[in-house]
Design brief:
Keywords: Signal. By secondary structure, the protein is of the alpha+beta class. The chain has 2 domains: about 280 residues, no CATH class; about 140 residues, no CATH class. It is about 35% helix and about 15% strand. It has 12 helices and 17 strands. Strand 10 and strand 11 form a beta hairpin. Helix 3 runs antiparallel to helix 11. The termini are far apart. The protein binds 2-acetamido-2-deoxy-beta-D-glucopyranose (7 copies).
């Protein structure tokens, strides 16, 4: 059975487009994208419940269904299109549609699924669009409980696409114009500095690029999204090219939102994009991707692979070569930091694990990546990153303040190249403070050391700390 016949809509189109568009890029992309598709499908195949037509949860919960990965898998089946792949894909898509529910509770037409609420779209162009994709309490900011403001890049870009695309398909001009209105705000914010607000962390960069590809590929030139998507992808990659350290296979910090302290251990969608560009060996991904943290995202492989022949033509040449060899100095040590003053602790998501305002990464002797991040404990931080030095201070702190640094643990303990002495404190105001080291196996799938520096009693003044780094 032909995929296009079964569904007769854009799912099928996107699946076959891989072969059509591939002619415009070199065979490298086509081969690597095919490898991403095959490896991702080979893994997710094991989770497929053919009797029901749904994937089991990839974390192996109590035989629960997983809607998100089922939808990704269905696209992969259409792209692979072998044996009864197309029939199975149709079965899954039908199951997902059956699971869609309109929810009038929020005075808006809601389209979601029992398994995973997707998004809520407005009944009128002037209505407030809400999203239950994330609980409003999850994040600060927004208007009328709508937390998808333009600087919350990924869901904002995706919502604009869904409104714009579905609106056009349904001839619902209100929905279409809502999509355009969201897009206008996102584009305006982007144009301010040619950058997305969330752009440089593994997982979120990858999703933003994916969503912008939907703008560029599937919306017409009459749409702001169709007009700006390709340009935004090119500019985002240009910045990512300057921050991607090929030797470390990581993107330099700071990150406003990321759990990906080391992209070689924690699976990122950005790494899947890089895989289609430079091949698996040079991409920040383990040979066995399903052994990595956040492995569930590997199931998006088919979508990345299907879009790669189109998407990869938008990546600047400089970026492509930077992904293979970092052009600047300090390829073995990066320090990135940002100063902030907020009214919550842990960034917009109030999450100290994902808010990483200062980040240091270095190459260890065993070729693994060492990393250090400050665990956010304050609403305000002044940070200066310079050659080999990270200097921090808490303007509103006092002698009870502590600086907690999470430092990546290496499997071969003691073989790290970060000298213990290199974590000295240059600042007078913290000298003589106590150091506490705990080895933790903790949140975010990483093992790390906890280096906590306190202030000497009666020290007064603004707490400061300065770390200098030297590679052996
Ligand atoms: C791509 O592969 C096709 C078929 O294998 C071959 O004919 C073509 O020359 C290749 N193109 C490049 C740029 O390598
Ligand atoms: C899984 O999905 C199928 C099809 O929608 C449904 O019949 C079944 O009850 C679901 N199972 C669970 C555990 O949710
Ligand atoms: C679009 O919005 C207008 C004004 O709120 C409303 O009268 C109209 O019914 C809406 N149309 C659709 C298709 O929802
Ligand atoms: C939308 O309008 C087009 C052109 O008038 C028509 O072909 C199509 O069937 C309509 N779609 C829906 C879902 O009403
Ligand atoms: C980075 O470290 C590797 C070995 O880990 C070494 O071969 C390389 O020369 C170093 N690069 C720089 C720029 O120091
Ligand atoms: C120090 O700061 C903490 C946290 O803001 C506060 O609870 C405490 O009262 C302060 N102590 C002094 C002596 O100012
Ligand atoms: C780090 O260690 C300090 C001191 O033991 C402790 O208070 C703090 O909760 C730890 N932080 C994290 C993130 O584990």
């Amino acid at each position: 059975m032909k995929a296009a016949f079964v569904l007769g809509n854009s799912f099928a189109l996107s699946a076959v487009s891989a072969t059509v568009r591939a002619k415009s890029v070199d065979n490298g992309t086509e081969n690597a994208a095919t490898q991403v598709l095959r490896e991702s499908m080979g893994w997710t195949d094991m989770y497929y419940d053919a009797e029901v037509g749904y994937l089991y949860n990839l974390d192996s919960k109590a035989l629960l269904n997983d809607t998100r990965s089922s939808a990704w898998y269905a696209a992969g089946l259409l792209a692979r299109n072998e044996g009864n792949d197309a029939e199975e894909a149709a079965k899954i898509v039908k199951n997902i549609i059956v699971g869609q529910h309109k929810n009038v509770k929020f005075k808006a037409v809601g389209y979601g699924t029992m398994q995973l609420a997707l998004t809520y779209l407005p009944t009128s162009g002037t209505g407030t669009t809400r999203s239950t994709r994330k609980n409003p309490r999850y994040r600060v900011g927004g208007v009328n409980d709508d937390i998808l403001y333009p600087s919350y890049s990924i869901p904002a870009i995706m919502r604009a696409f869904m409104s714009g695309w579905v609106g056009r398909k349904l001839n619902d001009s209100n929905m279409t114009s809502s999509g355009e209105a969201y897009a206008k705000d996102i584009v305006t914010l982007f144009d301010r500095a040619d950058i997305l607000s969330e752009f440089n962390s593994g997982t979120y960069a990858g999703v933003s690029l994916y969503a912008l590809t939907l703008w560029a590929k599937y919306l017409p030139p009459s749409s702001l999204m169709g007009q700006h998507g390709a340009d935004m992808i090119g500019k985002t990659w240009a910045t990512l090219g300057r921050l991607s350290i090929a030797h470390l296979k990581n993107v330099a910090g700071p990150w406003d939102r990321s759990y990906v302290y080391d992209m070689e251990r924690y699976l990122s969608i950005f790494a899947l994009h890089i895989w289609t560009l430079v091949g698996k060996t040079d991409a920040p991904i383990n040979a066995k991707p399903w052994t990595m943290g956040h492995k569930d995202d590997f199931a998006i492989g088919p979508r990345i692979a299907i879009l790669a022949p189109f998407h990869n033509t938008l990546v600047p040449k400089d970026t492509l070569s930077a992904l293979r060899a970092f052009p600047g100095p300090h390829a073995n040590l990066t320090i990135g930091a940002e100063t902030f003053s907020e009214n919550v602790i842990g960034g917009p998501a109030k999450n100290p694990s994902s808010f990483n305002p200062p980040v240091v990464q270095w190459s260890r002797k065993d070729a693994s990546v060492g990393w250090l991040t400050l665990y956010a404990q304050t609403e305000e931080l002044r940070a200066v990153a310079s050659d080999g030095i990270l200097a921090l201070e808490y303007p509103q702190g006092n002698e009870t303040s502590t600086f907690t640094f999470l430092v990546g643990q290496t499997r071969a303990a003691g073989r790290g190249t970060l000298r213990a002495g290199a974590m000295s404190r240059a600042s007078k105001s913290v000298s003589g403070s106590r150091d506490i080291c705990n080895l933790l196996t903790c949140c975010c799938d990483f093992e790390f050391w906890n280096f906590t520096y306190g202030m000497p009693e009666g020290s007064g003044g603004i707490p400061q700390i300065s770390l200098s780094f030297e590679l052996e």
